[in-house]
Specification:
Number of domains: 1
Shape: globular
Distance between the termini: 32 Å
Order of helices and strands: EEEEEEEEEEEEEEEEEEEEEEEEEEE
Largest sheet: 5 strands, antiparallel
Helix content: under 10%
CATH superfamily: TolB, C-terminal domain
CATH architecture: 6 Propeller
Length: about 325
């Protein structure tokens, strides 16, 4: 059984470059908030509720952790094998669904009254694959990845034929019109904007080794796609960006690498947060967006850090 370190500074937090020390709070340690998931994904913070939502994809549910009580309760079950979650700029939940017995393979928005609006489930008359991760830009547009992972079997969705290529899409925040913004990313997975929204980072999970691609954002289009970094033996999955432009990436593959790997805007590794499980995705939350919530395989972890998450993740 994993136990938190009683020592400060927490030995699980390691600087790979001296620049990381500015983000490390010496009197903060890694906490486990919950365990018992099959594959934890897609955390998103709701400040008004003082709560975090995240997906247990094979468990076909979205869970809610309450900051005040520490209790975890079901938020939505079944969830159509929900994966990535975020909030739009009006504070509404936006969710990527792999699809289940009652439908899915879509991107949805949960309205303030609890009604669920389908934002996109088809493109040019064909069903989406299994929307994976999602971010919302300041203009209200919704950007998401659509690999086929959820339709490859009956564990993270329902097995089905792939009708569309794997792509990155944009849904216009005003018209709802969907467009393809990238079709050359192999296994598009996690994505995040830079703080100024001039760049979009996308994890290419079917590249060997896995890579993080970066694109220049030109209005409603992406240009100049290039490799920011190659992961080597590591496995980046989902990530978010802080206000200084650093990438905090869910990471893992073995006991030495499981956790969160932090890269500066140039793609250089500067820090690592060791966890006993592979981390899939994360987000910043708490009153000041300075608490890092990490969805890692079976469990949810948290760590206070000396930075803040950029808006939109």
């Amino acid at each position: 059984m994993w136990e938190p370190s009683l020592r400060y500074p927490d030995p699980a937090i390691r600087a790979l470059d001296p620049s990381f020390e500015a983000y490390h709070l010496a009197l903060a340690g890694v906490e486990r908030l919950h365990t018992g998931c099959r594959w934890a994904e897609g955390p998103v913070w709701f400040g008004a509720w003082r709560s975090l939502l995240w997906s247990d994809v094979p468990g076909d549910r979205i869970l809610r952790w309450d900051e005040v009580t520490g209790q975890v309760t079901p938020f939505r079950a079944p969830s159509n094998y929900a994966n990535g979650n975020t909030r739009d700029r009006e504070g509404r939940l936006v969710t990527c669904e792999h699809g289940g017995e009652t439908g899915g393979r879509r991107v949805t928005r949960t309205e303030h009254d609890g009604a669920i609006t389908v934002l996109l489930d088809r493109f040019e008359g064909k069903r989406l694959n299994s929307p994976n991760d999602v971010v919302v830009k300041s203009d209200g547009s919704i950007w998401f990845t659509d690999p086929p992972f959820g339709i490859l079997g009956h564990y993270q969705g329902l097995k089905a034929a792939q009708e569309l290529p794997e792509r990155v899409y944009r849904i216009d925040g005003q018209t709802g019109r969907a467009t393809v913004v990238a079709d050359d990313v192999k296994g598009p997975n996690g994505l995040a904007f830079s703080p100024d929204e001039a760049k979009l980072y996308v994890i290419e999970s079917r590249a060997r080794p896995r890579t993080i691609r970066v694109f220049d954002v030109a209005g409603d289009r992406l240009r100049n796609g290039r490799v920011l970094l190659q992961a080597g033996t590591g496995t980046p999955d989902g990530f978010r960006v802080d206000v200084d432009g650093n990438l905090w990436c869910g990471w893992g593959m073995d006991a030495e690498q499981d956790g969160v790997r932090v890269f500066n805007p140039a793609g250089e590794p500067i820090g690592h947060i060791a966890l006993p499980e592979r981390c899939a995705n994360l987000c910043f939350g708490g009153r000041h967006r300075n608490r890092l919530f990490m969805a890692a395989s079976h469990s949810l972890y948290a760590l206070y850090v000396n930075t803040q998450g950029a808006p939109g993740g």
